[in-house]
Structure formats: C-alpha cells, structure tokens
C-alpha cells in the first residue's frame, strides 16, 4: 500500500493534471493541439426545447444533441486533456450529421440558436479551448436553396440522394468562398474543415483557404481527405492504416511505423474518423480486448509526432462498421480506467513541449515492440510500446541514450540505470506501454524522496487530527459528567 501511495504521488508530481499547455490558445501552434472529433446531434442533449421530435433510439434520425449539450459537457472533454473539439457541420440540414446542407447562411435550429452557438464557443474559449466546424463543399441536400435560380450549379451525385456543386464553375466557387468567409466571421469559429470536395482542383481549394485566412487570420483550415492544396494540417489515410495495423492486435506487422515521422504541415494522427469503420470493431473482429488495445494505442497517439485526433466514443470503445452505426448517441458510460489513462498521457503531452514539437527518432520496431524518442534541448523522452503477447526486454545503447543517464518510468514508476556493460535494459509486460524521462543519474531518486516525505507528512497530520479529536471528545465527555 505504501509503495502504491508513493507511486501515485510521484506520478501526480510528474504528470500533473490533464491541463492545457502553458501558452494560451492564441499562442499555441497546431502541434500544441489535440482534437476530440464529434457531431453535435450525437453528443449530448442539453435542452429539450429544440428537440422537434428527436428520438435518441433512431439511428437514422436526429437524436437531440445540441450546442447546449456541448457546453454542458465541456469539462468531460477537457478532463481528457483535449485542447480542441471538432463538432461537424452545423448549417441548416436535412440529416443528423449535418452534411445534407439546406442553406449555408443559417444554423440548424435543432442544434440551437445563434446565441446558444456563440455561448458555447465562448465557454470553450474561456476554458482556453478551440472549436472547429465542417464546411461541406458537396454532398448537400437536393433542396438546398441554391438549387433555385442557379441553373447549372448542381450536379447529381452517384447516390441519387444528394447533389454536388460544379466546383469548376467560377460563380459556384465565388458563392462558396463568400459563404465560408461569412460563416467564419459571424461564428468566430477557430477552425474550418472543408469536406466533400471530391476531386476539386487544388487551386480552387487554395482560393478558399486564402480567402478565409485573409478574413480571419487565426483560423485553421484543414480537410477530411487527401489533397495537394495548402491546408494547415495534412490528412493522410495511409497514416491511419499504419496505426491501425500496428495496434489492432498483439504481435502485429508493425513495419509501417518506419514511415511515421515529422511532416510539414503537421499530420493528423488518428485510428478512425467519422467516415470509417470504428477501430474498436477491428479489435473485436480479432478477438482482442478493446480497453487493453486502446491503452497501448492512445499512448502512441499522444506521443507520436503530429496532431492527435480522437473520435468521440473511443474512450468507451464504441463499435460500428458504417454510418449511422458508427455515430451512436454518446452514453457517457465511460471505462474510467481508459479515460484516466487518456487524461494522463494527453495531459503529459500538454505539459511537455518536447512531446508536442520535439524531434522524433524510431529506436526499435519489430513485430509490435516499438521504441522511439522525442527530444529537444530541454529534455528527452523514450516511449516503449510492448504490443506483443509476451513480456519483452529491450536493451538501449549508450549511443542512443548517453552515458551516465537513467530512465524514469512515468506509469510504473521504475528506474532504469545504465548497466555495467553500458546498456539500459527495459523490461515491459505484454500489452503494456510506458514513457521514460531521461535524466542524469545522480544516485538519488528525488521525486521518490519528495513523495515519501509527503506521505509521512500526511500520515503525521492524520495522527495529529485523530489525537485532537480524541482529546476534544474526552474534554466534552468530562464537561457533561
């Protein structure tokens, strides 16, 4: 019990809380962000006044989620360490996911009023968090207001249920750009994700990006599909496939991790998104235990180079192969252990600039045993992921770590000193992950000593309080007698 208490206090001293980086939202760069990706309708119903017959059991219809719900559950998202929330399309829409846009100039009243939207965004800003929303450039409703009086603007889509815009038409381009500018200016949103643009000319997408940024210089513009356009974040589905392959099961072929590295612009790091099969479903199909899988996977997600993006419900292991099954109403029946692990690792990322922006070097990668380094002039981290079915030992060389160092584990609170032969030998249980901070080996475990002092001080304080209460009780009884 004593050892566990010391370990817990040491972890608290080292990791702190899942708080945000020291810099304010205005000062943060994209590499400082971590994004929680959700849909307004499928998150939380904060008020029934705008439900309009919403049915939380109807997978195809509106479930009742709204801006008020996002505001009410702000702390839930922030407690996991996320610095930004992406809420999907919020225009007037014929579909719960917001993509069947009816008008770019109106906000969907099932989601709330313009004031409720601004109140929600203000609440997130007060919490030093950012809010991103989608702007669909196609796949909109056939009843969109632009289909009247604009002959030749619309092109029927393959599904027959939506329409696309002729993105080669300059009038269409100008109208979309004006709508995007108005949307970002009026909502004061922090980021816009352009979606459903098909094989649009990158030159047009660059026009949208430049126009939006000229009107709102601090706005982040990104996409949900690969393109050569100059977006602020790189979307690469190959990254998702590499991560899924490396962490979906034990003893995987993790060779794809050799391709992971720092990119410019930064890459979005994700295991699934709102358009894909849920990562948990892939685990279940392989008879894996999702909480354990996610425990290792999220350690990687928040320590690899790039901007981590986690789809809502991953913390409760939501499954599903396609929409709307992949978009359930969030029930908040959270696996607290997994949620706490996300908070710890994401919180550590928030506190360490090195884990967000530092250099990256892959030190070892073989069949699920993955070791990499994040380093800067200020500090060096070694992350060890044992995604195998057996306890593993990895020997890191003095050339990799340096002479006279020690590695202090953040999760298991172990210390690894340099062996007489020069190596640093790390042993990790199967399906486990840990982060090690590299420090000078002074022979003293200062955090452990501090933690021990705190434990003893707390214990002495407790004994003193018991003594005082006992003394007061005896005094009271004597007075009554």
From TrEMBL:
Cofactor dependence is on: Ca(2+)
Q: Where are the transmembrane segments?
A: 446-467
SUPFAM superfamilies documented for this protein: (Trans)glycosidases, Glycosyl hydrolase domain
Task: Give the highest taxon in the source lineage.
Answer: Bacteria
**Annotated keywords:** Hydrolase, Membrane, Metal-binding, Signal, Transmembrane, Transmembrane helix
One Gene Ontology MF term: hydrolase activity
Q: Which Pfam families match?
A: Alpha-amylase, Alpha-amylase_C_2
Q: Which residues form a coiled coil?
A: none
Domain Glycosyl hydrolase family 13 catalytic span(s) in chain numbering: 37-349
Q: Is tRNA processing among the key words of this record?
A: no
Keyword hit for Metal-binding: yes
What name does the UniProt record give this protein? Alpha-amylase family glycosyl hydrolase
